[in-house]
Amino acid sequence: MTDEQRIRFALQLIDEDGAGWKRNQLRLLGQVQPPAHLATWVAFVTEFNLCFTDPEEQKKAAALLNHGKVIQTTSVQEFIDRVNEKCDLAHYCNKTTLPIIFLSFFPSIQV
User: Fold this and answer.
1) Is 65 within 8 Å of 71 (Cβ atoms)?
2) How far apart are CA 89 and CA 61, in angstroms?
């Protein structure tokens, strides 16, 4: 699969939240000389990430976990899933960090 085919395929997967950006990229891709961010797959991924990801996402997730701000408002399973999601985003995937995070949810537990 060529870079252009990969880019077109990825653009077709973008839903309504990014529909305007998608239309614009497809229009630009149809030009005789497309912009640099549509020339290669790597450049496209970089541009996509700049437009659709939060550069502070890891810090925000870590802050929520470190300060015990992830609270249970639904089922236990949904709470666990949310904590796991935040751990993944914060890159807290080791055995040293997880017990500290766990204890932040239960301040009455003394170590």
Assistant:
1) no
2) 6
